Amino acid sequence: MKNFIILILLLFFLYSCKNPKNEISSENYVELNDDLKGIVARYINYQPCSDCAYEIYFNKIDPHYSQVILYKGNKSLTINEYEKNGRFPVIYTDILDKKIHVYTGGESYFKAPKNQLRDVNGKESNKSFNVWVISDSLNVRKIDTLDYAYPFLPLPVKREFPPF
């Protein structure tokens, strides 16, 4: 009986140490720096939304210039593209109790669980709020508000017409 208990414990120990190679790991949490965390907190508070999907897109244009797009809406900004191509966010951050999916442009190279992007409200239309674009050039940041922007593509031109 004593040997049987030892055998059971040994089998339990060996089974618990097993790491299946087929499993895809869940998302990984990342912490934003204090400057960006403050901007994101202001964005969340600017137009409060209790049941929105929150996303942040990082686009490094060159070694000295980056664009960061902040988005919130009832669906993911890139839901059609990412679900069709099987690209899902693998990292996230949490600010003011809001889970924010982080996109880096490298999602096609990583495996991620497919259950991450879903309609928040189950609505067909994609209601979005203003998009904030943070332009960062050598740690000098400028924030623009746009009605729409799509990540990893050139931003829409903001045109101001002179009075006649």
Description:
With about 160 residues, the protein is α/β, with parallel strands linked by helices. It has one domain (about 30-145). Helix content is about 20%, strand content about 30%. The chain has a seven-stranded mixed beta sheet with strand order 1-4-5-2-3-6-7. A hairpin with a 2-residue loop joins strand 2 and strand 3 (about 65-75). The longest helix has 16 residues, at about 1-15. It is elongated. Mean pLDDT is about 75; it is low at about 20-25 and about 120.
Key terms:
164 residues; alpha/beta; seven-stranded mixed sheet; 3 helices
Low-pLDDT residue spans: 20-24, 118-122
Basic shape:
elongated
Strand order of the largest sheet: 1-4-5-2-3-6-7
Radius of gyration (Å) = 21 Å
Distance between the termini: 98 Å
- The average pLDDT is 77
Main β-sheet: number of strands, strand sense, barrel status?
A: 7 strands, mixed
* N to C succession of SSEs: HEHEEHEEEE
Assembly type: single chain
Total number of helices: 3
Structural class per helix/strand content?
alpha/beta
What's the count of strands? 7
Helix content: 10-25%
Fraction of residues in β-strands: 25-35%
- Number of separate domains: 1
